[in-house]
Amino acid sequence: MSSLTNLRWTLNGPKIIPNLGVTRYGNASHNGAVLYQGPSMIQPGVEIVVIVTGLRNASSNTKTGPLLQTHILPVEEIPTQAIVSGLDSAVCGGCTHRRRWDAELQRWVRTCYVNIGKAQNAVWKAFHNGSYPEIDWDAYNTLATGMFGRMGTWGDPASVPIEVWDNFVKPLSGWTGYTHQSANPRLREVLRYCQVSADSLGDAQASSKAGLGSFRVLGSNSPKQQDWETLCPASEEAGKTVQCHECLMCDGKSGNNIVIGAHGIGGGHAQESKRRPLTFA
Ligand code: SF4
Predict the structure, then answer these.
(1) In a 3-state reduction of DSSP, which class is residue 178?
(2) For ligand 1, what atom is nearest to the CA of residue 215?
(3) What stretch of H or E contains 83?
């Protein structure tokens, strides 16, 4: 990708985007950049964009520590609207934590822990205001050397071409990533960088048997931690002894099967999935 263009590839071919005001990624005022804009790998008819933030000021939260964040967003709708219209399926696939009608409760519930009304809505607006230049991978390699990253702060990394993640992780000292798309063999390439998001003990068992790392969130009716599973050390239950950038067990490579209590904005509704467990041929 060139850093000097205001042409972007879209589903309808190249289009001219509004002048960014600057033409080179590396301007000291830029804290973010566009890593990818194009079709979703989950739903190829929908255009998505991936924005990395934290390049100048690494954002931090108490659990993860300072990580580059990557926001995977549908281009056409602001995230809070996309979760209502269903366009979020292009970046989240059939994830069980998406907004859904609960017949028992007779209301809509969403168990995703990401509060998209804050960061992701702001990033989506900034993207449409032309605030993020296209990534210059050479500049990125210099700037991000030794940093840590998070794949899919919101959105599933499997919705993005794997080459984007190959480039993203190249200069990093470590990363974390999770995918809910492991049921689809076509989308499993991303497991080279991601944990299997396990929605049940059966999912975690299948992952462990296949030598894959997993991440299981314990809902109110979930079986307890098994002896072959590892409690996330950044969890409340473990006393928050480390942050993700110090731990890095969730990088898809360590093979650890992690468990954590339900957390985040929708955590109270988390339940053990009743669907058939994943299978890995
Ligand atoms: S196991 Fe480690 S990398 Fe994974 S969420 Fe917990 S602290 Fe972060």
Answers:
(1) strand
(2) 4
(3) helix 79-85
Q: Which amino acid is at 127?
A: F
Whether the CB of 194 sits within 6 Å of ligand 1: no
For residues 31-48, average pLDDT? 95
Give the closest residue (by CA) to ligand 1 atom 1.
232
Quote the ligand 1 centre to 148 CA distance (angstroms).
Answer: 13
Over residues 105-111, the mean pLDDT reads: 89
CB of 89 within 6 A of ligand 1: the answer is no
More confident residue, 234 or 27: 234
**Cα angle 131, 134, 137; round to 5:** 135
Query: Counting every residue, how long is the chain?
Result: 281
Long-range contacts of range 177-180, CB-CB < 8 Å, 24 or more positions apart?
A: 177/150, 177/151, 177/152, 177/250, 177/251, 177/252, 178/151, 178/152, 178/215, 178/250, 179/152, 180/92, 180/93, 180/94, 180/95, 180/96, 180/97, 180/156
Which residues make beta-bridge pairs with 38?
A: 48
Residues 104, 114 contacting (CB under 8 angstroms): no
Query: What type of residue is 187?
Result: L
